[in-house]
Amino acid sequence: MLIAITAATGQLGRLVVEQLKSQVPTDQLVALVRTPAKATDLGIPVREADYSRPETLAAALAGVDTLLLISSSEIGQRAAQHRNVIEAARQNGVKHIVYTSLLHADVSELSLADEHRATEEILKSAGIPYTLLRNGWYTENYTNSIAGALAGGAFVGSAQEGRISSAARADFAAAAVAVLTSPGHEGKTYELAGDDSYTLAELAAEVSRQTGRDLPYRDLPQADYAAALAGFGLPEGLAQAIAGWDVAAAHGALFDESRQLSRLIGHPTTPLATTVAAALR
């Protein structure tokens, strides 16, 4: 059986490849990447596969049995890019597609959800058995901001008291590996989130505890938070999007207490304190 991993040089893709290599012979794995020269360190065969260039996808998917389709990072282009991959998979006889979607994509008010919903519909009409991994937020989405928060003296956001059930990126990689290497997942949808939840104020308190500094959380109106992000140098559109995601979090879009992720991977998800400590090292 040949397992292909798209976006294999991305942050999630690399973790998936590393975990797969401990369970699957490397000659049964193939990395699908836009720039093969950047994938020479993966330790598995590499094929060129550009979501936006369908002519690269037929050869990339030749002989593939199971495909992990890691969602594109190009917001606004995702649905069309994913359609290209799914159509190439159909034409090449791929037997199972595992797709990294978004937590509660069918009902989520996150702006990101639209393209995931569209992709899920494309998958449903493609006639290929599929599994939906509806990934929640990566804890690293927040811990990557710790340095800036410490420099500025506060965490800022617009999430109010919304609870966030995030997990470490490695936990989501482990979920993908579990589905890719065990039977019985076809037709299933997994809502994947951390075992525990926190508010941004509680995140700030954890960083304060570990650093010995007083780092408060400052909640801002959506427009003010977007303006602050733009002031930090983010493009206007991205700043608006991030602020909107925080507002969605305030309404519960990033909360889930089903613990499907820890059941799927067979162990508790990584605690917030652990990911914070890793970011501070």
Automatic annotation (TrEMBL):
SUPFAM superfamilies: NAD(P)-binding Rossmann-fold domains. This is SDR family oxidoreductase. It comes from Hymenobacter lutimineralis. It holds the Pfam family NAD_binding_10. InterPro entries: NAD(P)-bd_dom, NAD(P)-bd_dom_sf, NmrA-type_oxidoreductase. Residues 8-183 form the NAD(P)-binding domain. PANTHER family: NMRA-LIKE DOMAIN-CONTAINING PROTEIN, QUINONE OXIDOREDUCTASE 2.
